[in-house]
């Protein structure tokens, strides 16, 4: 479904934070904090839209995605950025090596019992003062999807979370929540949550 998704993003602007002032503000604030601390990794970068946005702000950023086809598109659309194929569950990140990590609408497909381990690996990879920013769908359901993006057959589950549940997981991982943005449903998607958490030591 990567081709259909990229076509949707490039023709409609869906997923481009420039078109959403609250999301843009959250990413801008995150960028301001992490820029002097160290490099940034965009986990689940898709076609690299947010990765490129951060690069335009002179952030040392790279992107990683599970889908080789998404990475092909990211490299084509944003040749100035670095992208590679990889899974959030198997990143082999060096301890205290990153200033920031994004899980920007990319972690909601991780099963509930897997997410805490991934968040702990993110926390360990952050330098003191480094931050993790997450954007995800709010709710209580495990939504099984059989098609996406103009009818492409898929088999995946979207795991919705309540913000307070995610905050508890971030705290368990050793991170301190520094921002909690809750967005109402709009004409494109249901309610959403943006959380920023920091490693203090």
Automatic annotation (TrEMBL):
Signal peptide feature range: none
Single Gene Ontology BP annotation: methylation
Database matches in Gene3D superfamilies: Vaccinia Virus protein VP39
Domain Methyltransferase: 40-130
CDD domains assigned to the protein according to its UniProt record, in alphabetical order: AdoMet_MTases
Methyltransferase as UniProt keyword: yes
SUPFAM superfamilies: S-adenosyl-L-methionine-dependent methyltransferases (SSF53335)
InterPro entries, alphabetized: Methyltransf_25, SAM-dependent_MTases_sf
Entry superkingdom: Bacteria
GO molecular function annotations of the record: methyltransferase activity
Keywords: Methyltransferase, Transferase
Protein name: SAM-dependent methyltransferase
Species name: Mycolicibacterium bacteremicum (Mycobacterium bacteremicum)
């Amino acid at each position: 479904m990567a081709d259909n998704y990229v076509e949707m993003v490039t023709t409609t602007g869906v997923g481009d934070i420039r078109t959403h002032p609250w999301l843009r503000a959250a990413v801008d604030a995150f960028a301001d904090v992490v820029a002097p601390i160290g490099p940034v990794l965009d986990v689940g970068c898709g076609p690299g839209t947010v990765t490129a946005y951060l690069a335009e702000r002179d952030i040392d950023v790279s992107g990683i995605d599970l889908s080789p086809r998404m990475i092909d598109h990211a490299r084509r659309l944003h040749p100035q950025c670095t992208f590679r194929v990889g899974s959030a569950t198997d990143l082999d990140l060096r301890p205290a090596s990153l200033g920031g990590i994004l899980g920007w609408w990319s972690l909601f497909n991780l099963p509930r019992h897997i997410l805490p381990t991934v968040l702990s690996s993110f926390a360990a990879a952050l330098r003191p003062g480094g931050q993790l920013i997450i954007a995800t769908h709010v709710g209580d359901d495990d939504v099984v999807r059989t098609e996406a993006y103009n009818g492409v057959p898929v088999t995946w589950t979207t795991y919705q979370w309540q913000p307070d549940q995610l905050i508890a997981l971030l705290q368990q991982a050793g991170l301190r929540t520094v921002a909690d943005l809750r967005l109402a449903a709009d004409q494109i998607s249901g309610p959403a949550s943006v959380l920023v958490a920091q490693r203090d030591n």
